[in-house]
Amino acid sequence: MKTTPEHNKRIAEMTFAAVYPHYVAKVEKKGRSKEELHQVIEWLTGFDDDKLQEMIDEKVPFETFFGKAKLNPNAELIKGVICGYRIEEIDNVLTKQVRYLDKLVDELAKGKKMEKILRKK
Question: d(Cα 82, Cα 6) in Å, to the nearest integer?
Fold first, then answer.
């Protein structure tokens, strides 16, 4: 399934601050913690709690969020379907990075073990 330019633009302009509360609610509803969510986000982006809060406070769009991130080299091991898209088939780099994050949050909410979520080669 290919993403459209409009879809990619919408993703790029969406703010991390707008989506973050949904991530928290999703994982907490399933018995996981905000701390675990932060661990997953830090693994993917390199952002510690302070930097993450800064991104939320500044209401940065995903384009800026991932532009400032130091993406984990093992992020390419994140595969599968999320939001109707097969991650490994997404051409747009930013859209793929956002879907990486969505997939990790989804796995956390589904009770997957942290050592499986934080992929290693």
Answer: 18
Are 7 and 90 in contact by the 8 Å Cβ rule? The answer is: no
pTM of the model: 0.93
| Token pair listed for 2 | 């290919």
The rounded distance, in Å, linking the Cα atoms of 104 and 75 is 10
Q: Encoding tokens for residue 29?
A: 């509803």
List the beta bridge partners of residue 85: 82
- 17-36 confidence digits (pLDDT tens): 999 999 999 999 999 999 99
**Residue 36 amino acid letter:** E
| The pair of three-digit structure tokens given for residue 3, joined into one six-digit string | 């993403």
- Cα–Cα distance measured from residue 91 to residue 33, given in angstroms and rounded to the nearest whole number: 32
Q: CB 37: neighbour CB atoms within 10 A?
A: 21
Domains of the chain: 5-117 (1.10.8.290)
